[in-house]
Fold each of these.
Amino acid sequence: MKPAYVEANLGRYDSDVQAALDELARTDVIRRIWLKDHTVWKPEPEQIIDRLGWLTVTGCMQEQLGILQAFSQQVKDAGFRHVVLLGVGGSSLGAEVLRQTFGRVPGYPELIVLDSTLPETIKAVTDIIDPARTLFLVSSKSGSTAEPLILFRYFWGLVEKVAAKGKAGDNFVAITDAGTPLATLAEEKQFRHIFANPADVGGRYSVLSYFGLVPGELIGLDVSLLLQRADNMGKGCAPDRSRLDNHCSWLGACIGTMALKGRDKLTLITSPSVRSFGLWVEQLIAESTGKEGKGIIPVAGEPLVSPGHYGNDRFFVYLRLITDNNSDIDVAVNAIRASGQPVIILEMADKYDLGAEFFRWELATAVAGSVIGINPFNQPNVQQAKDATERFLKAFSSLATYLPPLEGTGLLRDLLTKAVPGRYFAIMVYLPQTPSMDEALTELRQKVIERYHIATTLGYGPRFLHSTGQLHKGGTNSGLFLQLTASHKTDVSIPGVPYTFGNVADAQALGDREALRANGREVASVRLPVADAASVKQLLAEVC
């Protein structure tokens, strides 16, 4: 099975892409990437040379298949009903894609990915599971990421109440680099297992390592087949492949060239069964390219509208699973293509072709980074929001008082007065995700597209802080940012600290707002009266 693009309609940009491919060939970029040559991107090796392990990680993981399979059987034999992954960003998004794409395999535990600090979400997970029969995967490359560690505190407390003395660790697994604070914690608490990931694999490039494969194996996926498909794509992206036949360099040249030509709104359209793939691509593209005042804006999950509502800053990629019912999407994509917008169609034979797509997009993103002239492996601006959040929480802890008020600081209608061609509208939601909330936010996105003809993005906090957050602050200053918050209907305490999950979520929203403004971004923070879909729909009247 050989994944490849089905059709590419680049119009007047075809010659530009050919020129980019010529330059990649002249400078031997693909061969140099495979040789892990940091000078493809920057003269300095820092935060590059130690982050290229994803190129060959599939071989390493294939050697671990026996260990993964034996561990999965051990978990089944232990009678665990749920696996709850505690992580955020690159440590969780790949697993979330696998969960949503493949669903629950009969006879295996059900996977829940918890990447939120919202107390309502945490309580909802708590209500579903039996702590005694739940395996918790604490997932963090650095082993110091705040969200999974405070989530661990909470669930450890629940397990300790029901486990035999000294046996709470049997319900926990760590996925991290060797020698991290999390690895040390796991040893001290006698976790059931510690999966030490290859240190040269970065978070958003880690889906084909333990971070994606452990949860995948635990829920019954054929991990061997997933890796095989990735390997097949890797062979199709080898340096000896011709320019047009190299699946990854061709896509990377297209993405990078389009961005340089002003078509920096990379709009991903997917078949229904692989819709969640957009979450992963969103982080990969945004966090890899959104820096130094440059960047490619990934647009995922956007409602399809008539072609006349799209601006001339778009570039469309349609990921088409041939086994899905794609009739309505095919019609919409054909109309977009007929309107003259640049469109690429990529085809998947079945769901396991996700392995191939993971690798294709990783290498294509690295290539696109070389085309636009950035280091695609660091995330210099993510720390800004983290630092601000930590400062708010430290002040709260030391004073034992209250956080600064999380109140509204602007109106949507005023923000949208700046909605001119070339800009994009980013909705940042610190509200519980529900089907009705998704529907209301989709309606808001559609109305903005149709009224202002600009691209829209949507992210739930704090997940997006480790995804599009880098782009928001370090990329092109073209975003219009709408932050949505509301009072918490409930709150959940965190053992050992003076603040609650509600305090953490509010501090993250405050920290993100501060970091955006420090970078000169246009932000409207709207405090909804109630955290529900009806309150979101009231905002529709301001889109005028």
Amino acid sequence: MLPLHHNFFLMNRRADISIFTSLLFLILFQGCVAKRLGKQAARFESAGMFAKAADLYYKASLKKPNVVEFKTGLRRSGQIHLEELSQLVNQAYINRDYHKAVYDFLALKGFLNKVKYAGVELNIDYSTQRIFENARELYLSDRYEYGQKLIGESDFDEAKKVFNEIHQILPDFRDTRSYLNMATIEPIYLRGVNLFSQRKYMDAYQEWEKVTMYDGGYKDVNSLMHQALNERYKEGVLFLINENFSAAALALGEVYKKNPKFEDVKNLYVEARNEPIYRSAMVDLNAGKCRAAYYGFEKVIADAGAYKNADAKRKRALDCAQYPIALATGKISDNQKDAIEFENTLINTLLKKRDPFLKIHKLEIVNSTLMKALKKETLIPDRNQLKELHDKNGIKAVLTLLFSNYRKADGALEDRQKTGFERKKITITTGETIFDDKKVTYYEYQKENQFSIEISYQLISTLTGEILLSDKLNGAETDKIHYAIYDGDTKILYPAVKIDNNYFVDDKNYSSLQALLKSSQQITTPDKQRDKVYGVLAEKISASLSNFNPER
């Protein structure tokens, strides 16, 4: 077998040869085609068919640019064909067919440019050039007058075609550019006039805006655009006076987007957008719906800053909407630390939500005497205690947390001595392969950690004693490990099966043992399980509190 690099070299050689062969074939093919075209051209030339001959000489020259006879043939037949085209121009001029004379000359020019691309220069007779210029002047003058007539008849589409034709033939002919511009712009201008008469002021504005893209000073378009904005502005003001705020915002917004500095549109647009929100927020505030009022003023401030002292009104709404809660946490008989841990987790979760209304306090800090007086079984204050919290401490509700079914188990690591075999393959003198099994000892380990808890909570109004929220939540986490350890070569370790007090290799369970040998020895601690459970339960209680609206 050849080395890999040698094979690669051979493959590249074959590829190079293939490319070279293809290129050679292409060159030979092009040469054959060119020769065939040259012979056909010569035959047409002999027959006096110079246009066809010139075309074939042209194609042959493109394929084989270095063949002199192709270029010579092209110059010879091309010049004769050029004279034929010149005769057509002259005859058309004599017949006063100036359209034909012009376009025949343009075809002649196209032929000249074509053969020039093949490296052959031909000459136009001076008289033919003069005839063309005269024919062009007469033809374009006629088309110009016709275009003017179409403009006068407001047939702008046809006028645009006429002046575009003139522009293509001679761009600087008289004021063609101006008329071409007019034929393009005037219909747009008139559409704007028509829309304005229908009181569709912004639609008219947009049409005139298109006009300015072509010609910024066309007629009185700038004055008309200002007038359109002014009319739409007056509509918006009238809507605002009549307190039709949505229509006012639409009208004034359209004017503002086109010209933010138009009159006092900016301030009026702000008023139209925010006044209905502001009024609704004021109604909510006076009705004691302080949360709704707060969010209303928040919207106004976000859009319009200190509109009508909205920031002061928002503060007033916030002061009214705030809902201080005292947290009374029960005990876990055998692990009070974990009870405090949940309390802190819940408080941190609530703080992360950044609820502007919810204020959480520990009851033991707000009123330590009351906390000590509460029954440990229920933690529910009586009416007098609730009233005291409300009147003296400004607390609007008490949140009680009770714990039950608490289990925190850090399991013992169980180990078992196991019998196995090291199995080696040995080739004996006869060439046969046999197994050499050596009995060995390895160890299996197992452990299980658990954490579970049940948390009951109640939210109690200090004003009425009513239970506002109540639920019982359960959380649990379990983690197990099961692995094996062997000091020797684990890859050849097999489990053993005991039959009649004798041990044999259990090759069926080899994969299972290998999995145990690779199994993780890391286990989640009960404290980490607790933290996970607490996070989930705290989130549920926090969501319940955030969704609770005492104003409903």
Amino acid sequence: MPTGTTPLTRLTRMTDTAPARTPTRVDAIAEDWVATLAQLDPEVAIYAGVPGPVETFADYSPEGTAGLAQAARAVLARLEVAEAVDAVDRVTIADLSSELRLHLELDDAGWTERDLNVIASPAQSIREIFDLLPTGTEADWHTIAVKLGNVPRALEGYAATLREGIRRGRTPARRQVERVLEQARQHSATEGFFGEFTASAALPQGELSAALHTELRRGAETAAAAYGAFADFLEQELAPAATETDAVGRELYALHSRRFLGATIDLDETYEWGIEELARMVEEQTRTADLILPGASVEEAIAHLERDPARKLHGREALRQWMQQLSDTAVEELSRTHFEIPEPVRRLECMIAPTAGGAIYYTGPTDDFSRPGRMWWSIPEGVDEFDTWREATTVYHEGVPGHHLQIGQAVYNREQLNSWRRLLAGTSGHAEGWALYAERLMEELGYLDDPADRLGMLDGQRMRAARVVLDIGVHLGKIHPETGAVWTSDDAFRFLHRHVNMNDGFIDFEVHRYLGWPGQAPSYKVGQRIWEQLRAETRTREGASYSDKAFHKRALDLGGVGLDTLRSALLD
């Protein structure tokens, strides 16, 4: 169990916002599911800070995935006969049942046997979980050493499942295999992640023992060799069998859309809306560019800002400090005005990630807040200069009122919600939709009044709108709005290049992400659309009594839920 976490049964009361709710039978089913997941998938235990065998990994083999499906069926059967005693129960039953059914549908469709992509498959998660392990004591580092030694088993089980996919003719696209192969080779290198991670092992005070240093070095060598063997499998077995087709088709795409939204949408209508939304973002960017440099195009305004030394940060530590200061200010000011932010949630740590992939992401607090919420910036090698006008909105997206407020509030609300609702429930559409909604809200509140900062926000919003069009277009074989022909994968690179102001390396990674992770990229903008619709509908219903602050609290107090569940809970 991670250092500093506390068993769920021993957690103390942390909120006085509402009377403690008496746990129900439905709560017990949900708690049992959290405990089951923590045993079957230690990543869950580590992320959430609940008891679990953190020295091991999930069983990624066909037997392991079958065991998880069997456990899901058992919980679903219990939910189907459980009676709700209140609104909290009704939400739990609706949302957990929906998630379990979708898991089983994806399992029946054979998704696990082809689940390999450049960003969010076991190939990445087996490595990335080390970022969340505590490192404050010798015991922590011993746990890490043992876990490093278990990497081979995890990757071997994963390879066995992918081999089953080869046997059944269910394989990922070749371009995904080729990119993951590159990642695996990097992890297998002596100077790769595992070697660097363990070589820098240290304690806040004192020194690690020589014996533990040796144990860590051997663990790193074992883990790196395992990624080398996995790379060999990808190169020699999976790549020759991989499909040349990137698009997954309407049926499978619809499942993934539901997975990432927690809602069923009209994919054709959403595609057309995406085209309209993209055009709207371009027009809004154009108007904002004129405020920065009269008569300038968007590209010219961006070039002007990139030459402005007053909007530059130099060095990673300068970036981290700037992020932390901006975040702290937002927390302090918004807690006095527009949001109720409990004391434990007010702590957010801005971090430079130990990897160099270029992603910016958020990890939630542990259940007892011993590990706070954290905003991570994975800075590519060689990048040492940063534009503040681009990133102000990023801090609001990842921090407050974005992901940190959303997820931290759910974790905090223990007196009303079971641990599944607080720690594990939710979808990308709910989370990322809220974060984009939060960006626009900060514009409404005056935090992006500087046209440069607003242009940075619109730059991201335009990209998210473009992704709706690109993702649905490619995977469903829709008609390209600019060429009039059916979308191809090659079109995706050209299309994104026209609509984002990023380097070619970023565009290359992003498009590969969309092609291998269908339905995820649109969930941001579609989720924002649904959040904004819900606020508008609530305002219309409540009239003069409506309050943004009350709406936000009511919505966030639900914890992470699918967007269909959110709509029902707020409006039905």
